[in-house]
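Hello forum,

I keep getting stuck at the same step: I have a sequence, I want structure tokens, and every attempt I make locally crashes halfway through. Rather than fight my setup again tonight, could one of you with a working pipeline run this one for me? It's a single chain of 696 residues.
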Amino acid sequence: MTVRNNFTYDLNKLGLADNTAINLYESYGNDLNWDNSFLATLRSSLNPKITNELKVQHLYTYQKSSPGDQLPAANIPRAIVENVPSKLSDGRTVTTAIQMGGHRFAQESFKNNVIQLVDNLYYNTDKVQYTFGLDLMYTNAYSVYGSEVNGRFHYNVDTKAGTTALQNFNDLKPYRYYREVPLMSDWGVTGNTLNAGIYGQMETKLARGLDMTAGLRLDYTYYPSSPFNQTVFDELGIRTDHKLKAFVVQPRAQFTWDVNENHKDFVRFGAGIFASDINNYMVINNLTFDGKHLATVDVRSPNIPTPDFNAYRNNFSSIPSLAQFQLPTINTNAPDARIPVLYKANISYSHFITDKFRVGIAGYMSLGRNNYMYVDRNMVADPLFRLANEDNRGVYVPLSTMPESGVPDWLEGRISKKLGRVLELNSQGKVNQFAFVADATYQYFKDGEITLSYTWNDARDNTSYNGNVANTATLSLPVKDDPRDLSRMTYSDNHFRSKVVLAATSPSFLGITIGVRYSGIGGTRYSMLSGANNNGDFVGTNDLAFIFNRSNGEVPQNVRAGLQSILDNPDASQSIKDYILKYEGKIAERNGGINGFFGTFDVRANKKFKLYKNHALEISADVFNFANLLNKNWGVTKTFGNQTLYGLGVPAANGNAAIPGFDRTAQRFNYRVNTAGVVNPSGNPYQIQLGARYSF
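Reply #2:
Ran it on my machine without issues. Output:
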């Protein structure tokens, strides 16, 4: 019997950045994680042909997000000041958003107790090796959802009053207040999940040099579901008590051919079906947003309370809850919701040129189906008007409700006024991923070794959402207009085109070993966003930009000049220039931007001291991103994430009056180009890690 216990405690002060472009110090949250894993393994040899291995594990995990030490433990609302202008050296004015106050989810926590039992029975005959197994796992989870429970105030330019966003902030005049209001003192939910799997596998030799491993696994999972909500059914005809379909049959096989059994040429082929365990946040979403635990408040003028941050710091209960404006937000499962499934296949060929020099090539295919995605079922089915100058982009709120600021109120685009968002988890997501890998390994002088690999990859999907807060599903899918449309397959957020990995280890000398590793990646993707909530849905950052034609005289001069300035800017990335030129006169393609290649070096030194008999002490030093240690301008990542091309409205300047963000008469948004197209270097700086290991 073997018993093992692992304990981890990690307190990451100010490790949680919020999602506004610029966050003040107090808006960073603390992240606490600790877990303990106890594992007991009993291996029994019943006879020369039968062995049984029983494993029992208990895992406890706890994660808590909390405000930074400058704020009270209960958190305070955040204030988001939008369209704060800055004048660049070339005379252009660009804007950004600044946040103060508490982090949006710095009041959530997750506590899990997991018990797992795995039993494997191994039965070996002269020709076949069999494995039969049972896998049972029970999870008891207590989860306190925390996103936006502290509330947020938004401030923007008021062109009619002639005031800036900062002036409105100073004058305590927000244009929007949003909060997820707890309806009970303890709004945490308990979810119990049971995973059960049985499997069998056989390994045998089919012919000379040809081995086969084949198996079958059956998995079933019980997930809790949200209760039936009569109001949702009466208003929208949607049941909220659907259960996830979670039984999956998973055959798989792998063939290995040692050609002529000469141990020089190896061909491998495998294929199978694999079930995915759903992200537990899906369960938390659906249990929490059942209409009873939290209510959504989202109000505009004249219903916005006057902010009083001193009061909020002194008393969490003073944060406005506005009972008269509370609406139930619902998260639930669609009738077709099921566990995601992955269909995988691989083929490879390896050749040993010598005993110490091997080369190989491999191909991989992964087809993901039944991936999950949340869509809003309380959003009107068809656009209520369209933007003729932006490829007839649809807008899902009435034209009459569009404000001059250009910030639409999603509440005006609902089917039922008795409900807020009704986010339904469906299984319409899919991904197609293909990769080819060429690699070589050379063992030289004593124990020195060099390994080199190159990967060509292609990944496309209709949504890259892989689980989190339900709202993240719509945040993560930039669209032309309809956020529920999953018909388009484009490059995935997880796509990259090429990857190079080089690892070299020196021969040991006097017990010292030096290792170098280079890892580089290129062709990652990003999207060009409009900077406006064009479609009028709940999400203000999921709208792809329309790239206006610089030669079209009907396009405002400031927009044409702004686009041209990016193309003429020698400091602007060629990547963003290519993106603009490719989609000029069209809606930008999701993930149509292509990043260049970048990489980092890691260096490791290791020294082993032999002590008494078989006792030894091993000392190691690692420098991650070694080039950055030598020069702060080396080893940085020069790539784009999603870029916002425009800002709304044109500030007053040079005696010209300000132009509002939306022109209701012309039925169009008024933009200004709000980026210079210059990459901000990012990535992790160098890190040094020292280690010691004593063995006996």
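Residues 345 and 534 are 41 Å apart (CA to CA). If your local run keeps crashing, start a new thread with the error log.
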